[in-house]
Structures are given as C-alpha cells and as structure tokens.
Design a protein that fits this description.
It contains seven helices and three strands; from the N terminus they run βαααββαααα. By secondary structure, the chain is mainly alpha-helical. A hairpin with a 6-residue loop joins strand 2 and strand 3.
C-alpha cells in the first residue's frame, strides 16, 4: 500500500489514530461505540472547512466495512493526518480493510452501534448517516446503492479469480457469501445484480 503519511519531499505528516484521539491505549481499541468514538471525534478534531466531507467519507467507510463484513474495523484502523501541529487536521485515507467473516463466520463488529455489535441493517445505517454525518436521505441512499453496485461488480472479478484456483475456491465461496449478506441484509438490496444508480433511484421514493 502506498504510504499516505509522507509529504512530497519524504518528510512525515502528523498522524493520529482514533485510539489516540479518544485518549485510549492500544489495548482499548475494541472498546466503545462508533457514534462517540468515531463520528463525534471527527466533529471535534477535523478542521471545520473539511468536516462535512470528512463526515460523509467516514460514513462511506463505515458502510463499506459493514458490507464486506469487516469485524476488525477497530479504532486504530481509522486515523487523522495533518501537515503541522498548528495546522488543520483531516481524515486519513482508507487503509487496512479486510473481510473477516469468511474466516470467522460468527464475527461481529468490534465496536457497538446503538449498543450492539450486530451488523446493522439499512434502516440503522440510514439513521446513522442522517444523525451522525448530517446527510440528506437522498445522499444516504446514493451511498448505500453505490456501495452495492461496486461490490456486485467486484464480486464478478472475484469469482473469476477463484474459479481458476481450486485450492482457494472454498475461501472464495465464503467471501462471496459474506458480501452477499452484507449487500442484502446490510444495504437492504435483495437483488443486487448490477443496476445503474439512475434506474434504481427512479424506483425509490426519497
């Protein structure tokens, strides 16, 4: 992965993960709720001019983690970067994404949402986007649908990849099943064959 904590001249950017931003040790990276540990901290630490886009990006990342069934989306896998200690702080790029459910079938979220580590459904994600990221319903729907479209597209490539690798085909099947559950149960799209966003949006009353 290309490093995102380096300046063009090779010097380091400032970087803090969300354990640090919450005043927690690494041992506590699985403690707390996403509402406070992530979304509230973005409001407190991200520069005002970038806060709206950071909250939207954080929501996109949270949705993706749920859709791919990433049970390792703990506080050290989210971060913030800055050029200078007295300068503006911005949300770090996405890093360290993994689907854990194919290997740990009963895996759940590492932090809570609404007090539970169960994977959220579309209604819960919608409420989160509206209340914690200040997103309009239309924007939330667009993000959820785009995530489903992208994963559906990638699933086709994944199937081709594992088709010719018999040794790992079982892993590929479990990965596909986890993503399928993430899209259908989490994003609320039972038939997630590729459908253009514009066509899908015509059938939904925002």
């Amino acid at each position: 992965m290309k490093r995102f904590d380096l300046q063009a001249d090779g010097s380091y950017l400032g970087y803090e993960d969300f354990c640090v931003l919450n005043g927690l040790s690494t041992a506590d990276k699985y403690k707390g709720g996403y509402e406070t540990r992530l979304f509230k901290r973005v409001r407190e630490f991200i520069d005002f001019d970038q806060r709206a886009s950071a909250l939207e990006d954080l929501f996109k990342l949270f949705v993706l983690n749920c859709a791919i069934r990433n049970g390792d989306a703990h506080l050290k896998n989210f971060g913030a970067v800055y050029d200078d200690v007295a300068g503006p702080v911005r949300l770090a790029p996405v890093y360290d994404l993994v689907s854990t459910v194919p290997y740990l079938p009963k895996d759940a979220m590492p932090l809570t949402l609404n007090g539970s580590t169960n994977w959220p459904n579309r209604k819960m994600l919608t409420v989160l986007g509206q209340t914690r990221s200040d997103l309009a319903l239309q924007t939330v729907n667009r993000i959820l649908d785009q995530t489903a479209d992208v994963l559906s597209s990638i699933t086709r490539e994944v199937n081709v990849y594992f088709k010719d690798r018999a040794t790992y085909r079982e892993v590929g099947d479990r990965l596909g099943a986890a993503w399928d559950a993430g899209i259908s149960e989490g994003l609320g799209i039972a038939d997630h064959s590729l459908v253009s966003l514009s066509r899908r949006s015509q059938g939904r009353n925002d």
